[in-house]
Amino acid sequence: MATRITISEFDRKMRDVLNRVAYQGESFILERSGREIARLEPVGPRPGVTAQEVAEKLRHLEFPEGFADDLEAARASIPPLEVPEWLG
Description:
Layout: E1 3-6, H1 7-24, E2 28-32, E3 35-40, H2 51-59, H3 67-76
Parallel strand pairs: 1-2
Antiparallel strand pairs: 2-3
């Protein structure tokens, strides 16, 4: 979803807006007098990694001995979720 900003706000924050487009993949709609006049968005795919790339990296991880026990102990230390009565 694009963030709406006025031309005067864009003038004041141009460097920040352009960095957000380039490095965070954000999009902006520029407005003048309440009218949309331009869209500013990244060229090409958004930066970052895909879920498939994350899965591929996780597939090759080697965990230290005892990691599963540590994970289970951490999980057991979390109190159970209490569901509010009104949600019920």
